[in-house]
Each structure stands twice: as structure tokens, then as C-alpha cells.
Amino acid sequence: MRIHVSSILKLSACLVLAITSCKQEYLEGVKSNPAVKVYLPAAEKANGLIDALTDGKLAVDSTAGTANFSVAVYRGGESNFDPLTVDVSADNTAIAGLKQSGALPANTIVLDPADYVLAAKDSVVFDNHIMKGSIVPKIKIAGLNKYSGKVVALGIKIAKSTKQEVNADMSRAILYFDADQLLDAVTPKTNMVDKTKWQVLKIAANDNVTFKVNDDGSILASGGNNGHQGIFQPFVIRAKKQYKIDLNVAGSGATDTWFEVYVSTLAPTQNNDYSDGGKRIALNTWTGCGKAPFNGLLSKLSCAGTGNIVTFPTAGTVYVVIKSGGASLGTGGIKLTNIDFRRVN
């Protein structure tokens, strides 16, 4: 039988087309034994440790107030791409030993169950040549301050796949992170002042100086005649971070008057003066500011105090206290606007 050359060429082209159009599906990643077992690829890392801020694919859910990380789940094998689910749970049994061996820092502590959300199951589906899923531990941002200065760890375990079995040798991993670094990553450097939380601080027995908090967040300090009063508000701060306090002040010019801002860990008490930690920024008519009309940032107008950048060695609550007193705060008093307290590093 004679075969025409053109027929051979056509047949060859068809075979090439058939081969390229019938590409065999495959799975990337670790092939466990047997090949179809379910596993955590992070278990291949030394001690199954996942540096959350480097390898955890951080996503912030500002509505829920959580920092969400991603821990991959794979299923090995070359066939049967039906979806499956695996049970997920916390398993912190290895953390103490890893601290003792030096694999985790000595200041590592286990994440409190109250401070995270971990779904009880995870789905594994076929996607881009990988049977994979994603466990998402959700760390509650509001609870992180108590871990300041610590490394926090959360062990994760998978079990009971609905189809292929779990590889017991690759079923555990430990997510860990520096709490302060995570807070830096998820906490915006925004103004922490809440205009509804100012409290009036009574100092002098008389009310010849008064502080009035307005609905728009501005505050008016007025009066004189040897009166003395203030306002204060608490703030939760982090250890060894810099915070800045500033505000705009405007007035017609005062007489024998002081106007001072304090930031300290001591809570003010009613009917008592406040000077803890020393004044930070201030107007003082005796030392050269506040006598003539003024309108600007107190940090620029200030002629007394140690400066408006503060830092504290430990995390906790500090109080911003603003007080004034003297003979006369001037016609119309001293108006405070744009009061701003925020972390700057």
C-alpha cells in the first residue's frame, strides 16, 4: 500500500496536536508516601515552624479586627481530584520543647485561645495543578497588647481527612510571630483621641477656670481669678514606642497664666493638682509665651516643658492631662482644637 507523503505530514501534525491538547494533569509539591496523603507543606520546614510575618501571608480584616494568616494544606498524588475536608485544631504540645532547644526564642508564649479564631475544618480542592486548601488563623488585634515584648506561637494540626488519609509525619506546624512587630504591621498610626471620652478634672476649690468640651471635639478653657481646672483622657500604649501629643491653641492673650500638657501613667484624681512626669508642652506668661494673641500648634508656641514626644518602658495605660489656671486666660479664653495623640514609630 502506498502512503502519500502529505498524508504522513498531516498525521504527524494531528498527533502533535492531540498530545499537546491532552496534557496530563499533575500535582506540584511534596509527594508523600503513599502519594495521595494529605499534609502541611510547612511541616517540611525545620521543626515545622512558620514565621508568620515572613511566610504567613498576612491580611488585616479591619471590620472583624483580626490579623489573618494563611497556612497551606496540600494533598499529594497524580489522580482523583475530588474535593475533601480535614479537621483542624490547635496543638501546642511541641512549643515548650522547641523553646528549651532554642528553636523558638526563650520569650515565646502560647497564644491564648481567647485571642484567636480557628475554623474546625478546611477544604482541599484542585487548583492550578495542586490539591490545596488554606487554614486561616485569625488573631484578634485587640488582644495583642498584652503580649508586648513576647514572641507568640500557635500550633496547628490536621486530622481525619474525608477521603485520603493524613500523613501523620507532616500533619503539624507552628505559626509564630513577634507581638510588637505584628502590632506595628496592623495598627495604623492614627489619632487615638476620642472626643467623647474627655473628663473634666477639678483642681481648685473654686470654678473660676472651667474647661468645656464641645460637640465638635473642641474644648474651651476660660476664666481666671486664681482658678485651676483641666481635662484628661486615658490611652492604651505599647512599650518602647514613641507617641506624640499636640493640639492647636488660640487665644487673645492671657495674664499670669499657665497652660500645660502632661502624659503619664498616674491616673488623675478629682480635687487634686496633677504634675506627674513633668509638663511636656506649655504656655507660660512668666517665661515668655501666651501673653500676646496666639493661634497655632502648642508644640510650636510652647516655651516650657520637655517636648511632645513621649515613650514608656512598658505597655499599659497612660493619661493625657491638659490643665490651666491663673489670673486671666484672656478675653474669650483659650480654645483647643485638633487634639492629637498618636504613635509615631
Beta-strand content bin: 35-45%
Q: In the CATH classification, which architecture of the largest domain applies?
A: Sandwich
The CATH class name of the largest domain reads Mainly Beta
Structural class: mainly beta
Q: Roughly how many Å is the radius of gyration? A: 32 Å
CATH third-level topology of the largest domain: Immunoglobulin-like
Mean pLDDT: 90
The name of the CATH superfamily of the largest domain reads hypothetical protein (bacova_03559)
Low-confidence stretches: 1-33
Structural features, described:
The structure is a single chain. Strands 14, 15, 16, 17, 18, 19, 20, 21, 22 and 23 form a ten-stranded antiparallel beta sheet that branches. Strands 1, 2, 5, 6, 7, 9, 10, 12 and 13 form a nine-stranded mixed beta sheet that branches. A four-stranded antiparallel beta sheet has the order 3-4-11-8, with no helix packed on it. It is elongated and about 85 Å long. With 345 residues, it is mainly β. 12% of the residues lie in helices and 41% in strands. The model is unreliable at 1-33 (pLDDT under 50).
